[in-house]
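Example (one chain per record):
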Amino acid sequence: MNGLSTVLILVGLFLVGGIISFAKQQMPKGLIVLLSLSAALCLVAGILRLGVWD
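Predicted structure:
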């Protein structure tokens, strides 16, 4: 696991925590959707950077 993939996965998990927190606070749905997309992109990029499929 290299440094960039670790950072991307950790940022993605941090954003998932933000999604849960914002949903509990009943923040606007657009903000939650934007946060969800960014979390998904970070997690997918981090997993793809691991290169386990090579």
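Caption: Helices lie at 3-24, 29-50.
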